[in-house]
Specification:
Layout (H helix, E strand, L loop, with lengths): L2 E5 L2 E4 L4 E8 L7 E7 L6 E6 L6 E3 L7 E6 L4 E6 L8 E8 L4 H7 L8 E2 L3 E6 L1
């Protein structure tokens, strides 16, 4: 059974930092493409960051580029999202997702699409106060 469990969310002031973690079981994440998405109340699920299994780097949404960093530890089966210079508009539930998207070209094209992922965690709430 595949399980993804996020942690590390909380309340932080604007300009502050948070480190999110996602513990994955039932999958070998060295073979997986991992991503973080977020969803605010009344809004669609939004891509945040992705890291591919081909170690070809990471990709980020324009809204978080330069402030957030995605990483993973295959030996611990963990995925992380380091969030710096947080803004009130970053307030949302943050979810990690995993699946195998195919080759590097497909990852590049589909990693930011939530429909690409079958496995999701329940999410962790991040609230940024102004």
């Amino acid at each position: 059974q595949v399980q993804l469990v996020e942690s590390g969310g909380g309340l932080v002031q604007a300009g502050g930092s948070l480190n999110l973690s996602c513990a994955v079981s039932g999958r070998t994440i060295s073979r997986d493409d991992m991503s973080w998405f977020r969803q605010a109340p009344g809004k669609e699920r939004e891509f945040v960051a992705a890291i591919g299994r081909f170690a070809s780097g990471a990709k980020y949404s324009d809204s978080v580029k330069g402030r957030f960093t995605i990483s993973k530890d295959n030996t611990k089966s963990m995925v992380y999202l380091k969030m710096d210079v947080l803004k009130p508009e970053d307030t949302a539930v943050y979810l990690c997702a995993t699946d195998r998207l195919g080759n590097a070209e497909r990852w590049s094209q589909y990693a930011s699409d939530p429909r690409s992922y079958m496995y999701w965690g329940q999410g962790t709430q991040v609230t940024v106060s102004s």
